[in-house]
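FW: tagging you since you asked about this chain on Friday. Here's the raw sequence from the shared folder, copied in full. Didn't touch anything.
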Amino acid sequence: MTLQTRLNGSGDRPPAAPDRLADVRGTIRRSCVLRLGPSLAALEATPAVLLERVGEIADEELAAAGVRVTDEERSLLHRRIADDVLGYGPIEPFLRDPAVTEVMVNGPGRIYVERDGRIEETDAVFADEEHLLRVISKIVSNIGRRVDESSPMVDARLPDGSRVNAVLPPVALSGPTLTIRKFAGSILAADDLVDLGTLSASCAEFLRLCVRGKLNVLVSGGTGVGKTTLLNVLSGFISHAERIVTIEDAAELQLRQRHVVSLEYRPANAEGRGEIAIRDLVRNALRMRPDRIIVGEVRGAETLDMLQAMNTGHEGSLTTIHANSPRDALARLETLVLTAGVELPHRAIREQIASAFDVIVQVGRLVDGTRRVVDVSEVLRLESDVVALQQLYVARPPASGSGLLGPLQATGLRPHFAEKAAAAGVTFPPELYS
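HL: got it, structure written out here
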């Protein structure tokens, strides 16, 4: 099997037409890097000025090489060179496209994107593996992280907050792999989620009162269902008079409040030292006089510290977890506590969980690509070694069998945490849960 066949996968994809400008494009790219190096770091060099300089250098190199091009080829060449030098190569157009929510690079010869919840293959390719490695290094180095053969996996972010994951050989057998989950350019509000059908208007108001009433909320869901987006919306309900400390693996939250302290995980250096784990950040946050603690996601030993914080006066905390249902979320919380290395009986852990969290919001992605809040449950007391749950809002399949899920509706049950919220001056109108 040839290299090109391996890059393109199965033979059902037509081979790409020969690129007659490939050689000169490489020459232009190197010339731009050499001549624009100082300008790229200059504060006075605006993107428009740099783009104009790239076009001038490209035209000079074309004339020197004696290559004739059409106006369309010249414009495309300028754009591609600018994307390589000033952006992230062939994936730059997808990063600019607001309809694309995820970019997936499976080696230099295969690039996929997600639009409207569906994955589709693109015609874009990297020149070679070295080209893809340069783009990955550019992304990672911008936030002071590294990726190489000794550390082949890395989590990073783009300047706009988009989440990045890169995996290099020998871990990635098909070549360097890059996954970018784009962050929304504009900050969504609860009304936006209602308009999109993610939430019902009554549930949005119910969750607003939960946050204002300083209830501890856990957002649960699978990968890519919009947990961080919903967490961002919920954080928008927090009063501007409160001090908020956010803790994330890679900073993604975009809070509107002014009194916000953002903490971010730091990986170990080349010598294997200097790591600052999420657990360390949670412990430190307790000494920062926070009114609210927001943890982007609990996935390890920091879960125990988070539970203890919620049970010792830090009400109104928010976090997310990977789980397929509220019941699974409770089981996973228990498992994560055990990773802290503390010998605790299972009943004691469940008592901590039952007293810490008040609400679990389950988010799901349906087969048509839409993202929905499908369940809002109250965490009750411990009953016979099992944490009891009470559904407050639920989206059920329609009785007729047509469609995916019905609208999110209240179950009619009155939440027990209403008294706790009342202590914070928040009252739930009966019509929200009737």
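FW: The chain has a mean pLDDT of 83.
HL: agreed, and The longest strand covers residues 371-383.
FW: great, closing this out.
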